[in-house]
Amino acid sequence: MKKPFVPYNETWQTRTHEPDPYENMLGDVLESAFVRGATTLAEIISVMTERDIPAPDGGSWTERSLADELARLAD
User: Fold this and answer.
1) Are 45 and 61 in contact (CB under 8 A)?
2) What per-residue confidence (pLDDT) applies to 10?
3) Looking at residue 45, what DSSP letter applies?
4) pTM
5) How far apart are CA 54 and CA 25, in angstroms?
6) Cα 33 versus chain centre, distance
7) 20 to each of 37, 49, 69, 75, how far by Cα in Å?
């Protein structure tokens, strides 16, 4: 007997809310960076800088600030 399909979500796929405009913007930038072949934080930051997206503190992105922000949003 064939088992019925049971959808499964990884923990990171399950959200408690819809993404807000900020999260959508970051998602769009990450997608664009990956399409361009970005594999490092520095390469992602280049795309963010090119699009004039300020860091959460209003300043410039650093590898540390991007890593911290991605970790914060992953919670």
Assistant:
1) yes
2) 67
3) H
4) 0.76
5) 11
6) 10
7) 26, 21, 15, 15
Which structure tokens are listed for 65? 């600030």
Q: What value does the CA radius of gyration of the chain take, rounded to a whole number of Å?
A: 16
Q: What is the rounded CA–CA span in Å between residue 28 and residue 23?
A: 9
Identify the DSSP state of 14. Answer: -
What's the average model confidence in pLDDT over 68-72? 94
Calculate mean pLDDT across residues 44-59.
94
Mean pLDDT (the chain) is 88
CA dihedral 23, 61, 30, 48 (to 10 degrees): 100
Q: Which two tokens stand for residue 70?
A: 């991605």
With 70 as the cut, is the pLDDT of residue 45 above it?
Answer: yes
Both ends of the chain: CA-CA distance in Å?
A: 40
Q: What angle do CA 38, 65, 20 make, to 5 degrees?
A: 80
